[in-house]
Amino acid sequence: MKDTDIKRLLYTHLLCIFSIILSVFIPSLFLENFSILETHLTWLCICSGFVTAVNLVLYLVVKPNTSSKRSSLSHKVTRFLKCCIYFLMSCFSFHVIFVLYGAPLIELALETFLFAVILSAFTTVPCLCLLGPNLKAWLRVFSRNGVTSIWENSLQITTISSFVGAWLGALPIPLDWERPWQVWPISCTLGATFGYVAGLVISPLWIYWNRKQLTYKNN
Amino acid sequence: MPYTTYLVEKGASHSFVAEAKPPTVTMPRIKALMTGSLPGFVDVIRNLNSPALLEDSVIRQAKAAGKRIIFYGDETWVKLFPKHFVEYDGTTSFFVSDYTEVDNNVTRHLDKVLKRGDWDILILHYLGLDHIGHISGPNSPLIGHKLSEMDSVLMKIHTSLQSKEREVPLPSLLVLCGDHGMSQTGSHGASSTEEVNTPLILISSAFERKPGDIRHPKHVQQTDVAATLAIALGLPIPKDSVGSLLFPVVEGRPMREQLRFLHLNTVQLTKLLQENVPSYEKDPGFEQFKMSERLHGNWIRLYLEEKHSEVLFNLGSKVLRQYLDALKMLSLSLSAQVAQYDIYSMMVGTVVVLEVLTLLLLSVPQALRRKAELEVPLSSPGFSLLFYLVILVLSAVHVIVCTSAESSCYFCSLSWLAAGGVMVLASALLCVIVSVLTNVLVGGNTPRKNPVHPSSRWSELDLLILLGTAGHVLSLGASSFVEEEHQTWYFLVNTLCLALSQETYRNYFLGDDGEPPCGLRVEQGLDGAAAARQDGPGCEVLERDKGHGSPSTSKVLRGREKWMVLASPWLILACCRLLRSLNQTGVQWAHRPDLGHWLTSSDHKAELSVLAALSLLVVFVLVQRGCSPVSKAALALGLLGVYCYRAAIGSVRFPWRPDSKDISKGIIEARFVYVFVLGILFTGTKDLLKSQVIAADFKLKTVGLWEIYSGLVLLAALLFRPHNLPVLAFSLLIQTLMTKFIWKPLRHDAAEITVMHYWFGQAFFYFQGNSNNIATVDISAGFVGLDTYVEIPAVLLTAFGTYAGPVLWASHLVHFLSSETRSGSALSHACFCYALVCSIPVSTYIVLVTSLRYHLFIWSVFSPKLLYEGMHLLITAAVCVFFTAMDQTRLTQS
Questions:
Q1: In sequence order, which residues have a C-beta less than 8 Å from that of residue B446 and are 6 or more positions away?
Q2: How far are the Cα atoms of A75, B615, B709, B710 from residue B623, in angstroms, in the given order?
Q3: Residue B554, pLDDT score
Q4: To the nearest whole angstrom, how far is the Cα of B574 from the nearest Cα of chain A?
Q5: Scanning every residue of chain A, which has its alpha carbon at the shortest distance from the alpha carbon of B546?
Q6: CB of B70 within 8 A of CB of B123?
Q7: Cβ of B542 and A93 within 8 Å?
Q8: Whole-angstrom Cα distance, residue A217 to residue B517?
Q9: Residue B418 — pLDDT band, cuts 50, 70, 90?
Q10: Main localisation, per the record (chain A) (predicted)?
Q11: How far is CA B53 from its chain centroid?
Q12: DSSP H helical segments within B510-604, as ranges?
């Protein structure tokens, strides 16, 4: 494996982190009274939009999976539609999981759904960009030792760390500190965001660290 | 503070240094000031979790006497004394960074209120100084400004009071006090001198003094304020007050009144002493009180006979001194009673518990080996020497502690035989631990073989179980996590289900990817990934490289069964979510509407009846599978009887008798069910005994166990409230699903299954509506089928009703493991794991509680949890005995 690949990976990840930071600061230029905690829903929308956009742009620019064949326009369109459907499905299934975990069923439904959206933006969108609407490939990547490139490896790490972040984010909710960020779903979204950022930082480093041991089938 | 200094040094005032008892936090301090009691004293006896103060207090007495009280300042007061103030404006003390607004919020009312004068008591609680301390410490320049601001406030109040005093005959009293001090860093809560000492200044024109009269501030207790205030206001002293009257305050009054006040105070203290100390007659304070009362009587007689004589005055001052002594003694012995922990006994208990836990932990590698033997190595001369040495040391310590301790100590009051027994036990355990340790260290290669040590591979499920247990144990240190422990368990159980679903997916979609492909050599690390579907769990991802060769499910499953297997974790999750909304428990979200309340409201009786009948039907369908025909019939009749019982006491109704008015206690119906419960349990035991005699009959034993289990289910159905019957039904449903589609196909090992049973049992404990609060125990379960309160059955029934969840899951575990023939030692493994999993939280909790004994919530949160843990430990012990009995029968069979 080449170091240039890892460098590219690092740059793309830095761009993603930069987009998240931008999503915190840019809106305050245009919107009054914008802050992450008070107008949390706005931030959720903006952040997930930024992350999705950056991922799409990076996918179009970097083209990590060069192996995909050229195809007709109609094929591309169906592919895109499929991706959209997958994205929506993942949002809804995340929502269901949150409700199963104890999120209120009727009240705060919008908040819960937006949390599902941002988590999908952190996890499903990169998967869709990299692997396309192809469940087999997804299963392969997320099964043991199924990765075939550093891109997939970093995808694995960021996805897992955002899930873990969201999971850990739920822990402080029962504490009686009465802080504004303990309200559902703020701590979870923040946890997911931190997890995602941590994954973005960790994965290039981890791959760089283990570059000797990592050998992929296709390389 | 020039004006205050002037008042203290020259003015008509008395000043004291009031000592606050830890915890020096606002709420208990306000309690101490107003009730005169020490926090944690009466709280145990009274209702534990009411945020409003239920105890007797000066405020309550004043309200009862028709005084008009106005309050401005810290919101805590409003919470503690709701509806006591005719007018109030609470300031939340939440935003510590604000130190001007909080005080302006109080001061802005001041002019108006002082002018109005339509109140009797005005309470102002200024927060600014405390906030400055929190932000920038005691040496901040802000402090000076704040103090001069407070000084001007004091001056304003004082001058206004003085001008008003000309109109009214009675003098007014201005009390300036602090609730707690401030440590060097500006915070508070602990017990350093700076935090504990607070100023207390009483200013009133009644305390007029002559120019040369220098009054040095005396050291008093903060609890004395309540008694003094009550006497000054002419109110009864709060019942639980342990404080004594600040005598300088009444010094100016005539002798007769002084004696009267002191008498009131001593009588109140003596009453409190009588209530709380069994041997109060021996208390020196009590004797003093008796004597001074007698002298007081003499004095009064003398006083009535003749006035203004030397004798009278001399006797009077003698009585006075006597009373003051009595007060001091009483107050002392009462507060000593309160703030004392029997550290020595606590230490002894903790040490024994920790030793047992260490022994359990050390024997993990041995016990989980294939043979599961737990040999205890003893009887080497070195160890017996150690044993005697330890016993000697312990008895020496015991003698020293018991003879030197001035306070009473439970362990010292035990008989010598019992104490000796405990010491022998402790030292024997220590020796065993040492010997096991040496065995492990010497035979260093043994642990490498066992399956739990790090060298072996963990599946993500094992990791989740370990992390979950550790997380739960750690969470017990935080009071909110103890209050909301159900959330922890629901969270863990959900995560467990998602982990299981991930495992099923991996097994069925990817087939056997157990053996790692050769091309990809990845060192151990966090790259083994969740085989989760994209929408899949986000939680079991903390996994390690596994490759433990998960049993390749070679058998080809038919389509429908495969889908059931894949869907069952989600079904279980849905069940858990439903149950979770059935009973809201805990503290923070307990007020939220839940299904249980909706069902029990009288408008929804029809729905409740349908639900109860349906759940009973589900219970029957699920339980009858494993029973013999006789017990099947008994079960059906018993469940019918349960419904009849609930109909008889009027919580559900029959469709043909929509509104029956006659409500009985349902004694006959309940006893009818008891007969069947006993019958089923009896047949079960009979089958078990028979299977032991006829060695080969393995089937019979399974049936017997299942019958015992179904008897317990029937009992639970009787004891549960009707809206909780779905909990029972869902519990059985989940057990069936897990058994059929998860444990059997995925072949978990006994330890994993045990821990899962334990987790589900805990979750069902909370699904039932229990919490870590004494108030949620359903005592009505103890009266089912009983005319009057009979202690032993009532206690047993209540305990079973409360712990039905864990007990049912444990008995299901016994049945499940003994019906599985694959591994001989599964039961003993399970027993060991169950004991371990239960005892780790308990012993950690004991240590935590011991170290947190001065925590603010020790009585309201931690000690009820300790009671629950103790009870749970008893139940666990019973379950483990049952396990061992089953295991013994297995051994005798083979």
A1: B365, B366, B440
A2: 55, 12, 9, 6
A3: 41
A4: 6
A5: A144
A6: yes
A7: no
A8: 11
A9: confident
A10: endoplasmic reticulum
A11: 19
A12: 559-580, 595-600
Query: How many CB pairs (< 8 A) connect A and B?
Result: 122
Distance from CA of A193 to the nearest CA of B (A): 14
Q: State the pLDDT at residue B278.
A: 65
Half-sphere exposure for B487 (CA within 13 Å, toward CB): 20
Using alpha carbons, select from A66, A77, A216 the residue that is nearest to residue A148: A216
Q: Find the closest chain A residue to B493 by CA distance.
A: A101
Q: Please name which of B683, B746, B312 lies closest in space to residue B505, comparing C-alpha atoms.
A: B746
- Nearest by CB to residue A139, choosing from B494, B526, B531, is B531
Statement: residue B299 has pLDDT above 90? no
DSSP for B460-494, please give it: HHHHHHHHHHHHHHHHTTSHHHHHTHHHHHHHHHH
Cα distance between residue B537 and residue B504, in whole Å: 12
Q: Given an 8 Å threshold on Cβ–Cβ distance, is A144 in contact with B480?
A: no
> For residue B313, what pLDDT is reported?
79
With tokens 């295991």, the residue in question is: B887
Q: Backbone phi, then psi, for A94, in 5-degree steps?
A: -60, -40
The 10s digit of each residue's pLDDT in B506-550 is 777 765 444 333 333 333 333 333 333 333 333 333 333 333 333
Element (H, E) at A150: helix A150-169
Contact A102 B580 (CB under 8 A): yes
pLDDT at residue B514, as a whole number: 40
- Would you list the domain boundaries of chain A? 3-217
- B130/B113 Cα distance (integer angstroms): 24
* pLDDT averaged over every residue in chain B: 78
Closest Cα of chain A to B582: distance in Å?
Answer: 12
Q: What is the pLDDT of residues B225-274, one digit of tens each?
A: 888 888 888 888 888 788 888 888 887 778 888 888 888 888 888 888 77
CB contact under 8 A, B520 and A216: yes
CB–CB of A143 and B520 under 8 A? no
Residue B297 near residue B259, CB atoms below 8 Å:
no
List, for residues A77-121, the tens digit of each pLDDT value: 888 899 999 999 999 999 999 999 988 888 889 999 999 999 999
On whether the CB atoms of residues B268 and B241 are closer than 8 A, the answer is yes
What is the crossing angle of helices A40-62 and A109-131, to 10°? Answer: 10
Distance in Å, alpha carbon of B56 to nearest chain A alpha carbon: 28
Query: DSSP secondary structure string, B633-649?
Result: HHHHHHHHHHHHHHHHT
pTM across the whole model: 0.71
Count CA atoms closer than 13 A to B671's CA, side-chain side.
6
- What distance in Å separates residue A26's CA from the closest CA in chain B? 28
Q: How many residues does chain A have?
A: 219
The two tokens of residue B429 are: 């355990």
pLDDT tops 70 at residue B22: no
Asked if pLDDT for residue B696 goes beyond 70, the answer is no
Q: Report whether pLDDT(B763) > 90.
A: yes
Residue type, B120: D
Residue appearing with tokens 């591979």: B457
> Is residue B683 pLDDT above 70, yes or no?
yes
* Helix or strand holding residue B84 (H, E): none
Q: For position B305, what pLDDT does the model report?
A: 78
Q: How far apart are CA A209 and CA B390, in angstroms?
A: 53
Residue with tokens 């009362």: B293
Provide the ipTM.
0.91
**Of A143, A145, A173, which is closest to B506 when you measure between CB atoms?**
A143
Q: Which residue of B has its CA nearest to A90?
A: B535
* Three-class DSSP category at B117: coil
Please state the rounded mean pLDDT for residues A184-190: 89
Rounded to whole angstroms, the Cα distance separating B645 from B35 reads: 47
Distance CA(A193)–CA(B365), nearest Å, equals: 40
At residue B405, the pLDDT reads 60
Mutation for A interface: B76, B527, B855, most A CBs within 10 A: B527
